[in-house]
Amino acid sequence: MAEPLLSATGLIKRFGGLVATDNVSIDVRPGEIHALIGPNGAGKTTLVSQLTGNLRPDTGTIHFAGRDITHLPMHARVRLGLARSFQITSVLREFTALDNVALAVQAHAGHSFRFLADTRRDESLRAPARRGLEAVGLPARANTPASALSHGEQRQLEIAMALAGDPKLLLLDEPMAGMGVEESQRMIGFLQGLKDRRGMLLIEHDMDAVFQLADRITVLVYGRAIASGTPAEIRANAEVRQAYLGEGDA
Ligand SMILES: Nc1ncnc2c1ncn2[C@@H]1O[C@H](COP(=O)(O)OP(=O)(O)OP(=O)(O)O)[C@@H](O)[C@H]1O
To answer: Where is the ABC transporter domain (predicted)?
Structure first.
């Protein structure tokens, strides 16, 4: 089995008296989708924020691509190949889909200033941007302003922007939120297409999507990882069914 790309061990994060992350260990292997599920307030966002460097754990260690990144700032983690969709980049609504991804490519290439003029003529920015749009199924919308994209297409665009730096690991925070059934199915197809090449940690409330996509699932309840395993193992886990999935949902 492949060595984990990301490996967090014994993470604890307290907010006053609340233990939001209660001794959680989790890992993501290359080429796998590991889903993190749990009810509202279970601590999913708090955990992911520690992985990205938005929050410092009180205790515990995080290794990524063979390095201890526990004390590295967010931008250094991004540079190592740890990307979070929806938060490291922001869509400029009046610019086209291609311009947005080209700007993200430019930012990842380490330019301290971002010039739209460059992204419009520099083929070294536009070629990877086109590939990003293709990877998420948006090539036909390259010249459409971001503001004219449907909700689902905007989320696809955000993922294309997160892919701009060719990350080894992508943290996806509810990519299916607000999508209809058809859009969700399309997104599931794109994510399946991306996973051969990189690891993904997926936070998602849509259980159909989670059970279709995930290779492994970890269930958080009150900050604790109560179970971790394959979708079949999670479905069959009595504690999970009782604490979270409920009869009929799993
Ligand atoms: N900065 C903070 N200060 C104090 N408490 C916080 C802070 N951030 C989160 N919490 C608390 O930590 C707990 C976990 O919150 P978190 O947002 O991580 O859960 P979640 O599983 O992501 O929830 P949701 O599914 O609703 O997004 C909650 O009780 C929340 O109120």
So the answer is: 6-247
Domain closes at, from 166, 189, 213: 166
Ligand 1: which residue has its CA nearest to atom 2?
15
The predicted model scores a pTM of: 0.90
Selection from 66, 131, 141, 64 nearest residue 102 by Cα = 131
CA of 200 relative to ligand 1 center, distance in Å: 22
| Alpha carbon of 248 to ligand 1 centroid (Å) | 27
**Residue 83 CA to its chain's centroid (Å):** 7
Q: Name residues contacting ligand 1 (CB within 6 A).
A: 15, 18, 20, 38, 40-46
Burial class (CB in 10 A: 0-12, 13-18, 19+), 37: buried
The answer to whether residues 144 and 41 touch, using CB atoms and an 8 Å cutoff, is no
20 Cα–ligand 1 center, Å: 7
Q: Which of 166, 199, 216 corresponds to the end of one domain?
A: 166
For 149-194, the pLDDT digits (tens) are: 988 888 889 999 988 888 999 999 888 888 888 888 988 998 998 8
ipTM reported for the complex, 2 dp: 0.97
**Which domain CATH number covers 73?**
3.40.50.300
What tens digit of pLDDT does each residue of 88-120 get?
456 888 999 999 999 888 887 766 556 666 777
